[in-house]
Write a structure and sequence with these properties.
About 25% of the residues lie in helices and about 25% in strands. With about 170 residues, the protein is of the alpha+beta class. The chain has one domain: Peptide Deformylase. It has a 5-stranded antiparallel beta sheet with strand order 1-2-3-6-7, sandwiched between helices. Strands 4-5-8 form a 3-stranded antiparallel beta sheet. It starts with about 25 loop residues before the first helix and ends with a helix. The chain binds nickel (II) ion. The site of nickel (II) ion has 5 residues, from helix 2.
C-alpha cells in the first residue's frame, strides 16, 4: 500500500482505545512497512497505528537522523519509569503545533516484534519520550492532554528555556 494518510486532530480514531494485535502475519508486516515509510516521508520520529486509521496496538519509532534506528513495537507496554525530562514535543496528527511535555527520563518497554517474539528494551532521553508518546496514542491520549504548556509560533521556531534542561 505504501504511504498511508495520517489522520488529524478532530478525527474520532485518535480518541479510541486500540485493540491488541493478535495475528503476526503478512498483513502486520505490510502495516509496519507502510507506517515506517509514512513516518519517514512526514519527517516524524514516531507513528502509531491509530494515526493511519488502524485501531491496533502497533507503533514505529526512529529517532535517528539517518533512519537507522527503527523500532517496531507491537503491543508495547511501559513496565518501568525512572526520572523525568521536560521538553518540546509535536505530533504528525497535529501539524504546526508543539508543546512542552514532561516524560520519564528512562523507561523499560515490553513489546513483541513483527514475528510475535517477546522483547524488552531499556532506553532513555528522546527515544524514551517518543515511545511514551506513541504508547499514549494507543490509549487515545495525545500530548496536548498531558502537556505543561503549548508553544507559540515564535517558540516553535526558536529557543525555549526547556531546551537547556535536556
Ligand atoms: Ni503523535
Amino acid at each position: 500500500m505504501g504511504i498511508r494518510k495520517i489522520v488529524k486532530l478532530g478525527d474520532e480514531t485518535l480518541r479510541r482505545i486500540s485493540r491488541p494485535q493478535e495475528k503476526f502475519d503478512r498483513r502486520l508486516e505490510g502495516l509496519l512497512k507502510d507506517m515506517a515509510e509514512t513516518m519517514y516521508k512526514a519527517e516524524g520520529v514516531g507513528l502509531a497505528a491509530p494515526q493511519v486509521g488502524i485501531l491496533r496496538r502497533v507503533a514505529v519509532v526512529d529517532v535517528t537522523e539517518d533512519h537507522s534506528g527503527i523500532l517496531e513495537l507491537v503491543n508495547p507496554e511501559i513496565i518501568d519509569r525512572e526520572g523525568s525530562q521536560t521538553g518540546r514535543e509535536g505530533c504528525l496528527s497535529l501539524p504546526a503545533r508543539q508543546g512542552v511535555v514532561t516524560r520519564p527520563m528512562k523507561i523499560r518497554v515490553r513489546y513483541q516484534d513483527r514475528k510475535g517474539h517477546p522483547m524488552e528494551l531499556e532506553t532513555e532521553g528522546f527515544e524514551a519520550r517518543a515511545i511514551c508518546h506513541e504508547v499514549d496514542h494507543l490509549d487515545g491520549r495525545l500530548y496536548i492532554d498531558v502537556m505543561d504548556r503549548e508553544l507559540t509560533k515564535e517558540e516553535i521556531e526558536g529557543h525555549i528555556p526547556e531546551d537547556d534542561a535536556e
